[in-house]
Amino acid sequence: MYVKNEHMRRNEKLKIVFMGTPSYATTILEVLCHEPSIEVALLVTQEDKPVGRKQLLTPPHTKAWLLEQALHVEIFQPKTLRCKEAHEKIAACRPDFIVVAAYGQILPREILDIAPCINLHASLLPKFRGASPIQSALLAGEVYTGVTSMLMEEGLDTGSMLGFSYLKIEPEHNASLLFNALSSCAARLTVTTLKNFSSLMPIQQVSANATHCKKIKKEDGLISLSLDATEIINRFKALSPWPGIFLESGLKLLDIKQIDTIENETFGIISEVTSEGIILTCKKGKIVVKTLQPASKSAMSARDYIRGKRLNCGDSLV
Question: For residue 95, what are the CA distances in angstroms to 85, 114, 200?
Fold first, then answer.
């Protein structure tokens, strides 16, 4: 079991070890670093990784931000947490709390026992436990989502819940915009949870109500116009900017919106060409495609694409 430190007993600054990797985590880290009652003693993040065609070695978002700010916070990038060095490094900080946000590794028991480990998970648990809660909420067509602060245990997102921040999903929200909105919610919730920790009553999750989500892969972006327009739009929002949505031919749909939800006799047909773009029939409903990108080519307007392919109303796009 973890032991309360002198910091908590003497009502000094709360000493935090922060564990996180992407921009979602950076937003939380930034708020903690500028909170007068909190001291971030250590950032634990993933190793630098090669990125892009040139495979340039690139630091995690949290590390890059910390270096830009020139803050006096030590950075630790272990390959695994299941080693003596990782345990000793974190324990040596004598943290009051370990705050975890999209770190990317499961914490072993040895780390969990150092101090209360609080995770900021981007869903309203027990819904969408796992690696892609934000995308999964959009895929499911949820009206509301949010962030849950929870005590971590060895299970995946199964710990007792400490607090919630709710957010209405707006029509314009895609995964990228929702990430930004939820990271701000998470930052505020983190400070509230830490400051009120001693008075909070943890709520155990009901596992029977739990849903799980997997890591998003490139192939998840493959769609067919035999789907309902609503589902295509949900996928478009959930998988933007990566991996995006694309047809079996490799044609990527970059800018689309839904027209209606009426049942169609045929799907994948160009029903109309407007000033906005081309209107395609789906199994149920229609979508307007404004911009698309053929495989291995640059993005172009949908109107230019069908003109180059000599396609007209009544023709199939694929």
Answer: 16, 8, 19
